[in-house]
Specification:
70% helix; mainly alpha
Length: 510
């Protein structure tokens, strides 16, 4: 795709076409006159979300050993989670309303309610949005992807492998899967497809575009699982594990080693399976390397901003690997990288302020993590995890069977969620605690559940940010999206269940 600058300053994302202004825009409402349309919460989702909390608070008996204050916080937390699913109002707004309610009802004091806003991991996730913007804005991500198209693009299958390898390598320094999909890879795939007569929202999409989109989406889940910093939810998982008392030394390397065998097998196998199950009509693309070479020629040598971006991210990755030895935390490493980009002008502070998704994430992440942490410290999570573990123990179900059942349940429940990070904030702590209470080694429980979190990002058109981006491209009909999501759910669970368990047994995790 031509390297252009859209409204947000992102190269590779052309500005939307500007048509005639709508009639309503030509005649704005007179100052001081209120709109007659209701713009607040959606009544039905709001009532349903609140009803869940009220039912827990006033109809369910408070278990022995759980304080009324903790039970009330659980009710608010469940209402918050229900609202994240039903969306009575924007996610950040709903989270802030829930947090306000915890303070007003004195369920939590103000300091405890807002304590998570100083959480290092949450700020690391926020800064990752700025890194992703830098990758897109400088054109570095586009350059890397184009190089791999040139190297692997002689066939449609080779093209998909090249794009998948490029995203996997970019991942650890660009921790936003949504930004990678929308800012780099979808524009490239759309351009290649349309140049071969494969158009979105058209039967010709099956010529090439539908296959490339599904291959990229299904494989990106495994690339995100390979590196700790390749997806925001990975960092969140380990923070929640720490709150449960699971300490993971050398987090970046430990995660990489644990993920390496199953992820590499999946990265090799999944594109080929997509090719067989959802084949493109065009199998040879001899013109793609030439197009990529021409594109690289147009891009010219690396700019100062690209070099600075690459150096900053390279340094950040080194510190993420060795930071624990040097006494530098992952969040401080991210702050150093961002400071370098701001100092050199690669990013401006206005760019960071314009990244509204980062600030929205700060708000609702902090609320979820804060409530989850308080529920854990009040003993609510341990109460339920011990109860489930006791029931499984009475049924003579060993910890390995419990491990498998909970992993499948954790995966399947994502059909209810439109965000991987919301899924983590809602369920990770409870499922990890249940595994540990059932006798699963803590390190295995924490890492495997965190890795699992990446795998369900492609099961529905709304399962994740990147899934929504690719679904919106128009290349894959919704029924195909759901069908392939179900098929590759089985593929994912088999690869990670068989290869993963064998690898983790070899590593001595159990």
């Amino acid at each position: 795709s031509p390297r252009s600058t859209g409204p947000a300053g992102r190269r590779g994302c052309p500005a939307p076409a500007r048509g005639p202004a709508p009639a309503a825009a030509a005649a704005p409402a007179a100052p001081g006159r209120a709109s007659s349309a209701w713009e607040g919460v959606k009544p039905v989702p709001f009532v349903a979300s609140v009803a869940v909390g009220l039912a827990v608070r006033f109809l369910a008996p408070v278990p022995a050993g759980v304080s009324p204050q903790a039970w009330q916080l659980l009710a608010i937390f469940l209402s918050t989670i229900t609202g994240l699913v039903l969306q009575p109002v924007a996610t950040g707004a709903w989270a802030m309303m829930a947090l306000t309610f915890t303070v007003v009802t004195k369920t939590l004091p103000f300091q405890a309610a807002f304590q998570a806003f100083t959480n290092e991991v949450i700020w690391l996730i926020v800064i990752s949005f700025f890194f992703a913007r830098g990758f897109v804005q400088t054109g570095l991500g586009e350059r890397v992807a184009t190089i791999f198209v040139k190297l692997f693009g002689k066939s449609t299958l080779g093209l998909s492998y090249g794009l998948n390898i490029a995203e996997t390598l970019i991942g650890p320094a660009m921790p936003s899967t949504t930004a990678r999909a929308g800012g780099i890879f979808l524009p490239i795939m759309s351009s290649l497809s349309q140049n071969n007569g494969s158009l979105p929202n058209d039967p010709s999409s099956r010529k090439m575009g539908a296959f490339l989109v599904q291959s990229q989406l299904q494989t990106s889940s495994h690339g995100s699982a390979l590196f700790l910093t390749a997806a925001a939810q990975n960092l969140l998982c380990l923070k929640l594990a720490q709150e449960l008392g699971v300490q993971i030394p050398g987090q970046f390397l430990t995660w990489l080693v644990a993920a390496s065998a199953p992820a590499l097998v999946a990265l090799a196998v999944v594109p080929y399976l997509v090719y067989k199950l959802y084949p493109p009509e065009i199998t040879d693309t001899p013109e793609a390397p030439a197009m990529a070479a021409k594109k690289l020629e147009e891009l010219g040598p690396m700019s100062r901003d690209e070099i600075t971006m690459a150096a900053s991210m390279g340094g950040a990755i080194v510190l993420w690997v060795f930071g624990e030895t040097l006494g530098v935390s992952a969040a401080v490493t991210a702050m150093l990288g961002l400071s370098a980009l701001l100092f050199t002008g690669v990013l401006k502070w206005s760019d960071c302020l314009d990244e509204t998704s980062a600030w929205d994430t700060l708000a609702w992440f902090a609320v979820l993590i804060g409530m989850s942490g308080q529920l854990n410290s009040m003993g609510v999570i341990s109460y339920f995890s011990n109860a489930v573990a006791g029931a499984l123990s009475a049924a003579n179900v060993g910890w390995l069977a419990t491990f498998g059942l909970l992993q499948v349940a954790y995966y399947g429940l994502h059909y209810m969620f439109a965000s991987q990070t919301a899924h983590v904030g809602s369920l990770y702590s409870a499922f990890c605690a249940m595994m540990i209470a059932a006798g699963c080694p803590p390190l295995l429980a924490a890492l495997s559940l965190g890795l699992n979190t990446n795998l369900f990002g492609a099961i529905t058109p709304f399962a994740s940010g990147q899934s929504a981006v690719y679904a919106g491209s128009g290349f894959v009909p919704e029924n195909d999206f759901l069908r392939l999501g179900a098929i590759f759910s089985v593929v994912n669970l088999v690869i990670w269940g068989v290869v993963g368990l064998a690898w983790w047994k070899f590593l001595g995790y159990f």
